[in-house]
Design goal:
The chain is built from six helices and nine strands; from the N terminus they run E-E-H-H-E-E-H-E-H-E-E-H-E-E-H. It is α+β, with helices and mostly antiparallel strands. The chain has one domain: 3-Layer(aba) Sandwich (Aminopeptidase). Strands 1, 2, 3, 4, 5, 6, 7, 8 and 9 form a nine-stranded mixed beta sheet that branches. Helix 1 packs across helix 2 and helix 4 runs antiparallel to helix 6. The protein is globular and about 45 Å long.
Length: about 250
């Protein structure tokens, strides 16, 4: 099912040596017939080095089992591969041993190819807002009290404790992701919208992956990818969606 279309371009410049590419982004419901492999790749990208610790097959099948809640972005029609995914899963409903606690937690999964413009994100969240309202009205289990966003973060390696020989080491300063001030803890948001999500959180944390990365010198510079979790109350969801639309137009 096609939802809507957004026009985008890959860049803009007055220089004659820069070419512009116009792209039409179409928004669709998840398609169980064609989206499996692309979803699985996006989930592997999301979980990075820890991807092998999850059953990506089962998680992909679970996402595809609820095609009326969630959005994909494609450029070549419904039967083409998706470039982005946004959905939410009921953690308690799908847990092996559901807890009787009154808190209803939704797990928000949002992942896209790295070159997708952030301007495609707010429409997906607006659509998900409507879909959750419709699902709740139909008696489906999407009346969440809290929402947990899983994403990635980047840690500045120079923020770690230096080795004894680091005083003599002369290396370039680590690059800083665009549109971000250097945080005190040296942890940067991987996706631009994660900065806005953190503004609405009641709790957030980043964590090292369980699987080992390639060994680095203690005084290395650069950025290392980490996992990120952000928890918000559902009452702040609408404010977050509106804020995204204001910032990323």
């Amino acid at each position: 099912m096609s939802k809507r279309k957004v026009d985008g371009d890959e860049g803009s410049s007055s220089d004659s040596d820069v070419s512009l590419i116009d792209v039409d982004f179409d928004f669709f419901d998840p398609n169980p017939n064609v989206d499996y492999h692309a979803f699985k790749r996006l989930l592997g990208q999301l979980f990075q080095r820890d991807a092998d610790r999850f059953s990506l097959h089962d998680l992909t099948e679970l996402i595809l089992s609820q095609p009326t809640v969630g959005t994909t972005i494609k450029t070549d029609g419904l039967e083409s591969d998706p470039y982005a995914l946004l959905t939410v899963l009921n953690v308690h409903q799908h847990a092996q041993h559901p807890t009787p606690a009154p808190t209803q937690l939704g797990l928000v999964i949002c992942e896209r190819l790295v070159n997708m413009p952030v301007q495609t994100v707010p429409p997906m969240y607006r659509m998900l807002t409507d879909e959750l309202k419709w699902a709740v009205a139909d008696g489906e289990p999407y009346a969440f009290t809290h929402l947990l966003f899983i994403s990635r973060a980047e840690e500045a390696l120079a923020n770690r404790a230096p080795s004894r020989r680091s005083k003599k080491s002369k290396k370039q300063k680590p690059r800083q992701p665009p549109e971000q001030q250097r945080p005190q803890d040296g942890i940067y948001s991987f996706h631009p919208e994660d900065t806005l999500i953190r503004e609405h959180t009641m709790h957030s944390l980043s964590y090292s992956y369980s699987a080992d990365s390639a060994p680095r010198e203690a005084d290395s510079f650069g950025l290392d990818v980490r996992g990120s979790l952000m928890l918000i109350e559902s009452s702040r969801w609408q404010s977050l969606v509106e804020r995204m639309a204001e910032v990323y137009v």
